[in-house]
Amino acid sequence: MTDDAPRIHRGLQGVYFDRSSTSFIDGRAGTLLYRGYSIHELAEHATFEEVAYLLLQGELPARAQLAAFDGELRAARAVPAPVVELLRALRDAHPMDALRTATSALAAFDPETRDNSVEATLRKGARLTAQVPTLVMAHHALREHREPVAPRADLGHAANFLYMLRGREPSAEAARLMDKDFVLHAEHGANASAFAARVIAGTQANLHAAITGAIAALSGPSHGGAAENVMLMAQAIGEPERAAAYVKQLRAEGQPVMGFGHRVYKTEDPRAQHLREGVEQLSREMGEPRWYAILEAVQEAMRPYARLGVHVNVDFFAGVIYYLNGFPPDLFVPIFAVGRVPGWTAQVAEQLAHNILIRPLTQYDGPAERPYVPLGAQR
Ligand SMILES: CC(C)(COP(=O)(O)OP(=O)(O)OC[C@H]1O[C@@H](n2cnc3c(N)ncnc32)[C@H](O)[C@@H]1OP(=O)(O)O)[C@@H](O)C(=O)NCCC(=O)NCCS
Predict the structure, then answer these.
(1) Which of 99, 101, 254, 295 has the fewest CB atoms lying closer than 10 Å?
(2) Can you give the pLDDT at residue 263?
(3) What's the sign of the alpha-carbon dihedral 314, 10, 194, 211?
(4) Homologous superfamily, domain 21-221+334-353
(5) Hey, how many other C-beta atoms are within 10 angstroms of the C-beta on 350?
């Protein structure tokens, strides 16, 4: 390799491709800020609606602004009947494939689909924030051969989401924990799905196109799937006493332990502690303390790996919360998508405000130039 050979950053690891004011992450210190506010304060005190407003508009809402935004979300929850029919036709698809296709279909019905101004993009983002939960729950009902539960405008975002699962109003505690989970998942820098959304917006495609692409990127197990795998691991372990042997076996096989390690965080993921408390409380409330005990035992067994910078991440606790709320494992990634719509939208709006086509290079390592021989000239 000569000195002027391009330096290749596979996976774009460590590459800054633009500036962003949506979130700040310090992976060594374990810091996460949304627009300057600590995730800890937001998780403790703010609702998802407040955080969605913060991400979309850049500032926390005043009381009247929040009430107006919340009203906008509640009024936008219903999805057009043809999209419900589409979900019916996709009843046997994986929930993420159905969500991706239905989100794309919403473009045909939104009054501002082709308006790429920042203002219209934010309005569309608010509508998608309200509609994506309805799509997820409608598809789930249809695949269970039930009619979808219509959203209720008298419930908050998280409570309505849980309500649409079975048509039963959740407890205030369950709704608060779900709300916190959405807050913790709302935005996370230049992850694969947000980057995909920005690449799409960079071509001046519309928000529905960008969010459809983001959902596609999120559906891969290396991005959205760890919560599901943690739950499957907890089920496979079965009893807290078996956790240490299970971890030992996985490590002997060179396998990672799900819910540990992170490309950016080399200390504990700051989002994890909020869900840890939630799992403990919910496990107790639901009379299933076993799940918290199993997770605690896995954490204990993983303690020696802390010196490698391998710590617990947000997905370690999220899966058990979803499970205890009655969600099947293949809905865990769609739940992540429900929380992430404001973050994707904020980044698309940011991209559109200072747009540039995102177009990197690959270094060619195929055959050198060679003559084309037409088929007719071949013997
Ligand atoms: C997320 C993940 C891909 C990050 O990987 P990464 O940034 O490339 O981290 P590295 O592979 O450089 O890890 C450094 C060391 O820690 C070890 N390690 C990383 N994650 C581990 C895990 N989950 N369990 C056990 N050991 C782990 C690696 O084996 C490596 O050790 P080595 O140097 O002896 O080989 C990886 O931690 C992982 O697969 N985690 C499990 C899946 C998960 O929970 N994903 C959700 C992320 S939010």
Answers:
(1) 254
(2) 84
(3) negative
(4) Citrate Synthase, domain 1 (1.10.580.10)
(5) 20
